[in-house]
Design goal:
The protein is an alpha/beta fold. About 30% of the residues lie in helices and about 15% in strands. The chain has one domain: Spore Coat Polysaccharide Biosynthesis Protein SpsA, Chain A (Alpha-Beta Complex). Strands 7-6-5-8-10-9-11-4-12 form a nine-stranded mixed beta sheet, sandwiched between helices. Helix 8 crosses helix 10.
């Protein structure tokens, strides 16, 4: 453990996550905030400035929906990276909440884990289960974009999950469970997601930001790498645009929304060997351009909330009808490119 990580743990243990901890965190990292209209510009020492929405403008949709959502007839795949085999049983139970057939594609890192996972999923009866071993590079992102990219032409909607523990940071305890609850917490929650994604223009749905991670919704040390890779896809990034991304890299998506990433010829060798990196890798950079890619393909994103107590008080919109749902989607969806902020 680095001296910085040790200091964070000591401060967190001593002061909790209150205002004093936040003040010390900002002081430690040289963070300051500049308000500009409905945006906040986050400046951090040695990092690219990032444009964020003010908390009171950061809307998400409440799930379950407050009306009966018909489940559309769609072909669904779940792409799941399982490094921590002990979490597999819980993930299997969550996947059973999908109110439709779902084929499950599991990636892992060695033959022993593969054998164990096949046993756990042997009684999964909602669709076929495929388990593959890939090189331990790019964590969950490389299997999603490289290892299983040949499957997507056969599906209308996909879910990306992974076994999440975040052992490097105590304040992230509960983050994985929060993401799972938002994406798969009940049949009614999933039915609402499928209803939202029945809109032609919605390409990605992901949870509103977990309170402890909200301060990390920025470019961090990833802007240059993200910019260089985006150029390969014909996308010009600007650090003055709004930064949004599915933190924790778990989300529902339409394959067409990420087609440029799936078809750009990425390989496992493009990702660095696993060394427990917490920032600055290709996987971190790709996570931050997912919504830019989807937007370039003509799709929008929607943030959802099924656990409002853990999102720092950001506003949650309730939908009592299809008409109200559609109106709320318009409020939640934001255009990233040329969004304002520093422009």
């Amino acid at each position: 453990m680095s001296a910085t990580d040790l200091a964070k743990r000591i401060i967190l243990a001593a002061f909790g996550e209150g205002r004093l901890y936040e003040f010390l965190r900002q002081l430690w990292h040289g963070i300051r905030y500049e308000e500009r209209g409905e945006f906040v510009i986050v400046h951090q020492r040695g990092r690219t400035a990032s444009v964020r929405l003010k908390l009171e403008r950061d809307f998400s949709l409440k799930l379950p929906l407050d009306f009966r959502a018909e489940v559309p007839a769609v072909r669904i795949a779940a792409v799941v990276h399982i490094f921590y085999v002990e979490l597999a049983g819980g993930l299997k139970n969550l996947l059973a909440n999908i109110p439709a057939r779902v084929d499950v594609y599991i990636s892992t890192t060695d033959a022993g884990k593969k054998s164990a996972l096949e046993k756990v999923f042997a009684d999964f009866d909602k669709g076929k289960v495929t388990v593959k071993v890939f090189e331990n590079r790019g964590r969950d992102v490389a299997p999603l974009l490289v290892g299983f990219r040949e499957i997507y032409s056969g599906y209308d909607l996909c879910l990306h999950l992974h076994s999440k523990k975040s052992p490097h940071d105590l304040k992230l305890a509960g983050w994985g469970e929060f993401l799972y609850k938002n994406l798969l917490g009940s049949t009614e929650i999933v039915a609402g997601i499928l209803r939202i994604m029945a809109r032609r223009d919605v390409g990605i749905v992901f949870p509103q930001y977990f309170s402890a991670i909200r301060s990390a919704i920025n470019w961090g040390g990833n802007f240059q790498l993200a910019q260089e890779f985006a150029m390969r896809l014909g996308i010009s990034l600007d650090e003055r645009w709004l930064v949004e991304f599915p933190s924790g890299s778990m989300f529902w998506f339409k394959p067409q929304a990420l087609a440029p990433l799936l078809n750009c010829g990425l390989s496992f060798e493009d990702f660095p060997p696993e060394k427990a990196q917490t920032d600055g890798t290709l996987a971190h950079a790709l996570e931050r351009i997912l919504l830019y890619v989807a937007e370039r393909e003509g799709f929008r994103y929607v943030k959802i909330s099924a656990d409002a107590d853990k999102i720092s008080g950001a506003p949650v919109l309730t939908s009592n009808s299809v008409e109200e749902l559609n109106a709320n989607v318009e409020k939640v969806c934001r255009r990233l490119a040329e969004s304002g902020g520093l422009v």
